[in-house]
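If your schedule permits, I should be very grateful for your opinion on a structural question. What I wish to show you is a protein chain and, alongside it, a tokenised description of its three-dimensional fold. Would you kindly read the sequence against the tokens and tell me how you understand this chain to fold? Here, with my thanks, is the record as I have it:

===
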Amino acid sequence: MLQPNKTQTGYTLIELLLYVAIVGSLLTSVTFFFGMVAEARVKNQTVSEVDEQGTAIMDYMTQTIRNATSITTPTVGLNGPSLTLAVPTVGLSPTIFNTSGATTLGYSVDGTSTDTSNSNVTSATKFVASTSGTVSALYGLVGPTVAASPNNQAQMALYSGTSAPTTLLASSTSVTLTAGSWNTFTIAPVSVTSGQTYWLAYNTNGIVAADNNLRTHPGTTGQTMFASRTFGTWPASWSGATENTEFSTYALIDTGAAPPAVQVKEGAGALVPLTSNDVQVTNLSFKNLTRAGTGGIVQVSFTVSRVNPNNRNEYNYQKTFIGSAEVGW
């Protein structure tokens, strides 16, 4: 007996490709969604970690200041990257706060006077690196007078060279200056070598000679060089007149051993870090604001950021903390 013809059913190639495209789109969307959720969770953890560690550092420092009997450094009216306190417990005195994990290139304390005529002039001080590593920010201590906007801008640059700034290694963008404070100038990371000479250069756009000047200190012969230069540009190399001074400018050389952390030393005890290796602390500054009739007042400021060597967005977060406390309060 003849069997009736049976119509065969199935997917055409076009239908199959369409289904694959739809399923692929759905899977891509789901993967992207869960990726966003995971990144948001890590970002929240990053923000929380920075906030918690920064708050803990500030609370510890301000409580220690309140329990102290006097401020040793910085002296009244000045600021610096380290705080030394005399405390009632003999075995814990002096108590010192500063930053670990980096070596200083430059002069990181307040100078004895304020320079003049830094505007539209390239001014650079030379220093010899004591260790090898990476520099990613320059710091300059600006005096008490800063011009009104828009003439309150400055830039810094890093040069190499033995007798003059002969090779421009990196320069910052313009920074709005804060008077009487350390100002931070971020640069692209630069490798420096132990024993080599480097120049920390500064330029600003003030109007008169008293504007936007760095603090300065007596230095070695010809340690600082300067030359006229319109603000906003850096020469590849330059030479000029010299002075036997050094500016209050410095950089931190990251040796790669550990991220910069706040540390405390109590009496003859060992240095103790106050932060974990997941975060780094930069721009640590203490300003002595002591007034007559008080035991001493200190303003504390620092920036905490998540360690982020691979520049991932979920770890890209930093926060600046500012607080103050009075001795014996």
Notes: The chain has a mean pLDDT of 88. Residues 13-67 form the longest helix (55 residues). Helices lie at 13-67. The two ends are 111 Å apart (CA to CA).
